[in-house]
Amino acid sequence: GYHIAYRISWISSFLSDRKIQLTFDNETSQEVPIQIGIPQGSPISPILFLIYIRYLFEFDEELDEEEKAQLSQVRYLSYIDDIALVASSKSLEANCRLLEKAASKLFQKGLDSLIQFDQEKIELIHFHARRSLNLDQYQIRLGDYLIKPQK
């Protein structure tokens, strides 16, 4: 009882009433209150972030049986704020469609939670056995953004 309440109170205090102040070229701004985000530099910050994003990878309640079966083929790996989606099959085309669907769901859940993914940092990597394969045709589209495979 007490230990849980104390920890929740401590985390709430850690995330509340925060301010930011910037210094650039020996000029310091006034303090500005911030309402979102997790303080960086503390050992607890990555843990809180992982707790916060955990639900991004849970789709069970919002999917029909066919979508559940499809997305169960995608693996989600996360380390701090880096996320990898992995699909494996005998078809690069099928992998692309799976990854496209999974990434779209993930991005939408992120937007709903005020988490923004930097589209410029998205990479698509295909691992395959054929050397002469033209990978440019195996792309993923997320909204208006086209992700081409890395060479």
Automatic annotation (TrEMBL):
Q: Which PROSITE patterns match?
A: RT_POL
The lineage, from the top, is: Eukaryota, Fungi, Dikarya, Ascomycota, Pezizomycotina
* PANTHER family in UniProt: ENDONUCLEASE_EXONUCLEASE_PHOSPHATASE DOMAIN-CONTAINING PROTEIN-RELATED, REVERSE TRANSCRIPTASE
Please report the stretch or stretches of sequence annotated as the Reverse transcriptase domain: 1-146
Q: What is this protein called?
A: Reverse transcriptase domain-containing protein
